[in-house]
Amino acid sequence: MPSNAQRSQSARAKRARQRGVATVIGLMFVLLVGSLVAAMAASSRGNIRTADTHARVRRAMAAAETGMQLAEQRLAKAASRFVVSQSEITPSFFNAVWTGGTIGDHVVLGSDTMGDSPAGIAQALINMHALDGNLIIRDSLDIALAGTSVAWPATDAAEYRPDWWVTTPIVGVDTVTVGEGGGPQTPIPPGFQIAYAPLADGVTVRIIAIGYDFAGNVNRPVTRTIMRDFSILKKVEHAIISPSRVLFGKNVQIVGDLGTTFEDTDFNNADPVVMRSDFRGLEPLLDAKLDALYASLQTPGNDVDGDNRFRIGHPVEGGAIPGDYVGSNGDPDPAAAFGDA
Q1: pTM to 2 decimals?
Q2: Beta-bridge partner residues of 210
Q3: What's the CA gap between 181 and 138, in Å, rounded?
Q4: How far is 291 from 299, CA to CA, in rounded Å?
């Protein structure tokens, strides 16, 4: 039979073994909680990086879209300045009007921003972009002035023309502050760069707009590129153009402007454009109403803008609408003959 000393020593050993098990379990919980904290920290840091990258991509895309809209407007404006007598757009004609070659009988319209007379569309674009400010020039490798260049490296020769590209500097969408060394002071705002690339088909120009976001690394910006093709066309923006008088009868609808070079207008009936109403001659009552309307239109001062119409809400033209018309007995409501239907 064990003595009291032996029983006391056995109890102490048992309690020691129990305390050791609790320590191991506690360490396991500490390790588990620490692992969860580390995982949550890594996940949070990854989410921050993902959100920052997404924001930079969106800023670069927005800058590229801004550049594309500007390029579309300037290409249309530059091309519209050249009014050429030739009607057929061929590769040889496009080459001449783009580079400034022998275009033929033409005139170059003035510009509201330039007092120049460019030889071709490419030069007209260069002149417009030369007025741009807020340029981003980080070092000598960045373009400082718009001009012509050869095709970019690695472009497909079967798709692009090898020369006469028009490239522009990077333009900041926000204010660019100049630093002490003459370069842009950080942080540099997002910007865009434009390239007008004539294609090998001879009648198409591809606008390439590149958006930049310089946040984080000035020398390795996030970029996004948008490309869109435009064909050079010639169209007459009139529905009808005639060297003689133009006469329109009833039931004729013209959508667009009219133009005539008829100059023999010294006779009583020598109007360049003569239009017959769709409503006259249907019944005498309607003819009487039209006579009253035309008489008011011809009264000096009634038709303010000279468009041969009366605006109901206008203080002058609205009051000139015949209001005291007296028709025959066949008119059910003479006072409302010119009401707004």
Answers
A1: 0.61
A2: 193, 225
A3: 10
A4: 12
Tokens 């209001």 belong to 323
φ, ψ at 171 (rounded to 5°): -110, 125
Q: Which residue, among 168, 174, 184, 182, has the nearest Cα to 136 in the 3D structure?
A: 184
Cα dist from 105 to 98, 121, 232, whole Å: 15, 16, 18
Q: What is the dihedral angle through the alpha carbons of 76, 81, 87, 93, rounded to the nearest 10 degrees?
A: -80
**Count of alpha carbons within 13 Å of 297, Cβ hemisphere only?**
13
Cα gap 50→150, rounded to integer Å? 38
Report the alpha-carbon distance of residue 7 to residue 14 in Å, rounded.
11
Residues 156, 59: Cα–Cα separation, whole Å: 29
Contacts of 77 (CB under 8 A, 6+ apart): 111, 128
pLDDT by 10s per residue, the chain, length 341? 566 666 666 666 665 555 556 677 777 878 888 778 777 777 666 667 777 888 889 999 999 999 999 999 999 999 988 888 766 788 888 898 999 888 877 788 876 556 678 889 999 999 999 989 889 988 888 888 999 999 998 889 999 999 999 999 999 988 888 766 667 777 889 999 999 999 999 899 999 999 999 886 778 889 999 999 999 887 777 888 888 888 888 788 888 888 888 888 888 888 888 887 777 778 887 888 888 888 888 999 999 888 888 887 788 888 888 876 666 556 667 666 776 65
Contacts of 258 (CB under 8 A, 6+ apart): 238, 239, 240, 241, 246, 273
How many angstroms separate the CA atoms of 135 and 145, rounded?
A: 9
Which pair of structure tokens corresponds to residue 110? Answer: 């003035």
